[in-house]
């Protein structure tokens, strides 16, 4: 009788182990999924232009696969000391926060909006959805 109980217990343990192994998620699939989720952008440099208060604002945004690494102002004719400073400030905020949900500079709203619009265009070029960055992602 004890031999039957021991055999039955062993069979049940093996069946339980196999059923649990069949229900577990593949670690290889999880690793690939995590890698894809961390890849937000197509890495590279992208340029865009938007209309500021005093003319076009041309920028270059550099992306890694996971973040905005640099925002450079290539050309602009905004008001010295106000519009040009707003472009720098907004660009720095976007990079630091990795978000398009940043404050515009008071008195230089059009310049601030030009920077936001141009960066948004670059984000699209890099293959990402700007709406995610507007949510403060």
Write up this protein:
With 137 residues, this protein is α+β, with helices and mostly antiparallel strands. It has two domains: 2-38; 44-134, Sufe protein. Chain: A, CATH 3.90.1010.20. The protein is 52% helix and 18% strand. It has five helices and three strands; from the N terminus they run H-H-E-E-E-H-H-H. The protein has helices spanning 2-23, 27-38, 83-97, 109-125, 130-134; strands spanning 44-51, 56-63, 68-75. It has a three-stranded antiparallel sheet. Strand 1 and strand 2 form a beta hairpin. Helix 3 (83-97) packs across helix 4. The mean pLDDT is 86. Keywords: Signal. Residues 52-126 form the FMN-binding domain. It comes from Desulfitobacterium dehalogenans. One of its GO terms (molecular function) is FMN binding. Residues 1-21 form the signal peptide.
Short description:
The protein is an alpha+beta fold and 137 residues long. The chain is built from five helices and three strands; from the N terminus they run H-H-E-E-E-H-H-H. A hairpin with a 4-residue loop joins strand 2 (56-63) and strand 3 (68-75).
Give average pLDDT, whole number.
86
Proportion of beta-strand residues: 15-25%
Q: Specify the number of helices.
A: 5
Helix content: 40-55%
- The top-level CATH class of the largest domain is Alpha Beta
What's the N-to-C terminus distance? Answer: 64 Å
- Give the overall shape: rod-shaped
Give the tally of structural domains.
2
């Amino acid at each position: 009788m004890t031999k039957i109980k021991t055999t039955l217990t062993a069979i049940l343990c093996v069946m339980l182990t196999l059923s649990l192994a069949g229900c577990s998620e593949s670690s290889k699939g999880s690793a690939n999924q995590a890698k894809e989720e961390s890849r937000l952008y197509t890495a590279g440099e992208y340029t865009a232009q938007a209309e500021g208060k005093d003319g076009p604002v041309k920028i270059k945004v550099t992306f890694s696969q996971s973040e905005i690494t640099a925002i450079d102002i290539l050309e602009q004719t905004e008001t010295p000391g106000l519009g040009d400073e707003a472009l720098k400030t907004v660009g720095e905020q976007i990079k630091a926060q990795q978000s398009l949900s940043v404050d515009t500079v008071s008195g230089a709203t059009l310049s601030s909006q030009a920077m936001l619009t141009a960066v948004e265009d670059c984000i699209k070029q890099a293959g990402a959805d700007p709406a995610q960055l507007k949510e403060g992602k």
